[in-house]
Amino acid sequence: MRNDKLTPAQLMGFREQIKVLDATVRDGGLVNSFRFTDEFVRDLYKTNIKAGVDYMELGYKADKTMFNEDDFGKWKFCNEDDIRDIVGDNDTDLKLSIMADVGRCDYKNDIIDRANSAIDMIRVATYVTTMPAAIDMIEDAAKKGYETTCNIMAVSNAQESDLDIALDMLGKSCVNGVYIVDSFGSLVPEQIKRISNKYLDMADKYGKQIGIHAHNNQQLAFANTIEALSEGVNLIDATYDGMGRGAGNCAMELLLGFLKNPKYKLFPVVKFIEQHMNKLREDGVLWGYGIPYMITGQFNQHPREAIAYTEQHKKDYSEFYKHILDMNS
Asked: What is the pTM of this model?
């Protein structure tokens, strides 16, 4: 629910309601087809515990009839046995989540009862146009005993009237939290401020929590996250070294360095980046800000064109700019 906007004095303190979710394996998995080693995921799990992170998202619960298991690592599917190989019974304060994507998840069969799972929370990803299906997934997960959130993707492309209807539908549902998702990294802090207040108005009316998931196409993921925090948003996504699709996400090391709650520890995060994230980059895994992502972000476009361009190691940025310009003509 809404909190008072942060004053300079409050920025020196902390707000206990803020919860940080590590999305490195889930969003970062979009970069390497979820082919993380068990050592990586296990060390990340242990690091999140040491760092005081509140939630760790392990990946997607994807429909195996739609996606070939041979084409992806195990965290595309998050089988219960694979999860327990990493976390056991997870007898810790760290909660675990997975993402279920509307239209890409056989949720009635693949998401088991919470009593039999190591997972605590199901995050449903949807567009405003598929909100009825998303609410059905949310209600199914809630009946099975899970905490639930809804991530409304590509909010920068949503018609405001449609977004208002979607938020009201979610407000009337059993969902616990709703996320602002800047999928294209196109939003700037002033827009985040306005959108945050729209979501928070719904939260005040219906008793929900609001979160933010930011992308870094314009190097604003951290700034946008802080703007949402200052307006009263409490659920915050971040990834180690900003790892995520395309330009990546709000960096965990920036966020924990900013938050003043003494439960959050920065040193374990820095050490993990040193030991694991650098190796991923050395092995050729690509993510992070670049000119192609800036261009698609400024044109409010999905980064798929920029991802393909970057993977080809092209540098003729002016030609890419003209290509995107032509696509928007």
From this structure: 0.96
